[in-house]
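Box 4.2: Ligand-aware structure prediction
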Amino acid sequence: MSVEDIYILGIESSCDDTSAAVLHNSNMCSNIVASQKIHEEYGGVVPELASRAHQQNIVPVVHQALAKANIDKKQLSAIAFTRGPGLMGSLLVGTSFAKSLAVGLNIPLIEVNHMQAHILAHFIDREHKQKPDFPFLAMTISGGHTQIVKVNHYFDMEILGETIDDAVGEAFDKSAKILGLPYPGGPLIDKYAKNGNPKAFTFTKPRVADLNFSFSGLKTGILYFIQKEVAANSKFIEENLNDLCASIQFTIVEILMDKLKKAVKETGIKSVAIGGGVSANSEIRKVLKEAEVSMGWKTYVPDFEFCTDNAAMIAVVGYYKYLQKDFSNTQVNVKARYSF
Ligand code: KG4
Ligand code: ZN
């Protein structure tokens, strides 16, 4: 098989999305995502239910990914799967499936770090997109992580700072919960914020050293503020929902941007990419674009399809590892906590 004809099947099951994708080299042929609605009624992801749903979804999702890519499984060059970080029971489903399929087809198995994949998603070929040049800074902002990473090369990454408590996605989701919004609340805060005044309410920003983040104090501050206001006016949230969402979102984005500016200053690198579910947020996308003009940055924002969890980003990491023949042993185990 020539170098031009590598087909990678990617499998992602780290949290509550079951996804499979096929890439032809770094071109996406299919990217199927089955999101689990079951968690909405519990206000957060229930690990036991997530792994059961993955088990139900994985076979149909992989079939759909192959069918949409119009290829037979015998044409696959390798299987890439998320080894971690994530929920143990969820990771086990994708990992076991990937192992069995790779053994059955007698093709290489490739383990992928989910957070590296959020960064390398920028290397999936897209006609309208430029890929970042090395080195660049990547801020990964999701429901489980908040990191600023210096990306020297595909697999040479240094974490410059990260959250010491909650992830930024949790800050969105927990604030939304305080406002009585369903899970996941991040996209709803974004939606209501569009009609609100970001300066209507002020919330204290945390003081954290270096390039690290903290979001738990902000959540507590919002909770106490809302409790006090609701005690005086039971309709406070209802009457101020748009302004509350806009103000919360404004504060969170400011916290992220303050650290990003510090990282650019300290490293001298003005090429900045974001990844992870929160990179779908319209305010962070807008503020980053503005930074191109105001601060001369070059910014890279993923297409919406690649912000939240998806297997195309797993497959693209698989592709670059395949080129290096960086394969995994079939004894490989999941890693719920997995740094790089
Ligand atoms: O990357 P992801 O799909 O899963 C994890 O690996 O955690 O990220 C999910 C997170 C959730 O917290 C969700 O509320 C947040 O991304 N999110 C958003 C938006 N879309 C998704 N947060 C703010 N604004 C959005 N538009
Ligand atoms: Zn993720």
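In the box above, the bound molecule is zinc ion. The longest helix spans residues 236-267.
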